[in-house]
Design goal:
Chain lengths: 266, 266
Amino acid sequence: MRGKSLTVLKLGGSVITVKDKTLTPNNSAIRRLAKEIANSGCSPLIIVHGGGSFGHPIAAEYRITEGFKDENQMVGFSKTHNAMVKLNMLIVEALLEEGLPAFSMAPSSLLVTRSGRIQHIYRDPLEQAFKLGFMPVLYGDVVFDYNMGFTVLSGDQILSKLATELGAERIIVGVDVDGLYTADPKINPEAQLITCLTPNELVNLIDKIGGSKSVDVTGSMMGKIRELIVPAMNGVNILIVNALKPNYIYSALRGEEVIGTRIIRG
Amino acid sequence: MRGKSLTVLKLGGSVITVKDKTLTPNNSAIRRLAKEIANSGCSPLIIVHGGGSFGHPIAAEYRITEGFKDENQMVGFSKTHNAMVKLNMLIVEALLEEGLPAFSMAPSSLLVTRSGRIQHIYRDPLEQAFKLGFMPVLYGDVVFDYNMGFTVLSGDQILSKLATELGAERIIVGVDVDGLYTADPKINPEAQLITCLTPNELVNLIDKIGGSKSVDVTGSMMGKIRELIVPAMNGVNILIVNALKPNYIYSALRGEEVIGTRIIRG
């Protein structure tokens, strides 16, 4: 594998889809991001994207995260996957239009989880794709699980696992906010962006949060930063950046100055 | 795995797409076949479908079967896969509409070939899918290859490999003709359907054909029956049947009398 030169880029579901509108892509963001990725010239690159309004509503309706409970969930499991595949096709096609050698890879065919954690990734297709210079594009997916039957696997966990296993140089997490804040910037005018953290500070931050409201790290952002601990501890440089703002992802991929939260070994 | 009770069903690309019309599904055939599969009650079942007018034109344009020669092919490799995924989504959705627990699985993520032959299948997701009672739906795909970089993998080879590895009871091959003939029925009025063959007779038939026109086994049908030798020799019962004729696939799945070519150990 390309080892230290590899970048793994996450495109958040809230960036590439329209929140609260089921199965609605954010086409202008998708086209813009494809151009930014192409213009950056960043290679080798793996892209992992989230589900947003494609994956989550169907997965929730059929309670897929709870695992296999009854046969009525099976159609929902398959429909959630199909919705993610359709979103993935839009991303891959936008990248292909920019001349990038993007290639869709299906997490539910590449790996199996145990109690919701990735147990094993079938790396051969990924390694062959890299050797030829392809840009694999994966996504949060429904997956088979040795204990639960099946479950939902977040793009964040895939990102973290791939970056760690493949010894990536850096992870760039594109979200719909500027990064981690000391408080919720929407309700607290004193909230400040945390521009830099060491891996140890990240762990302390997560420990400290508990039920407190002192740091704006709840819900999906909490899940995201939890997944970042292992790659951060393994020396992968991490940057959380606002992918809704034009050219932020471009600058991040170029390694240029950009507003965001860095998690870097001190 | 379910072993001896497993059926592996091939739906030919010429059945589920409109020949000579690029990217055109045969929607009425797809809907009818989904109903026939549902009505048959056949389980466990794996479905593998071909590419027809979805996969072949793009794969040919970019010379994917020749392997990786230059970077210009990469976009074509990805586009061929995307076209197959779109056809696969139509098949899976038609099956889901009939209430069947169909689930799409991506050959390019599940396996790698060596010089065009399947080297290894990552069986864990397939095995987990079976345990839960899913109906995996695979397809002819572009795949990564250890020697050639990449190539095209026929649905027929996937069918044969899965049936052999999983110890299937039977293979049903749905095509656009009634089976194997002693001559081309379109030009030779004396042509007769071969209703039954042993595995050894199948091998002799293939050996005999060479350049002769005595048996209507050319092009894709030749590729198909070549792939059937290994499972036939391993005791898998094979039936080649016309999937364009209503209820032929239904009867075949039910194990009822139907016109076709059987390959069965004597």
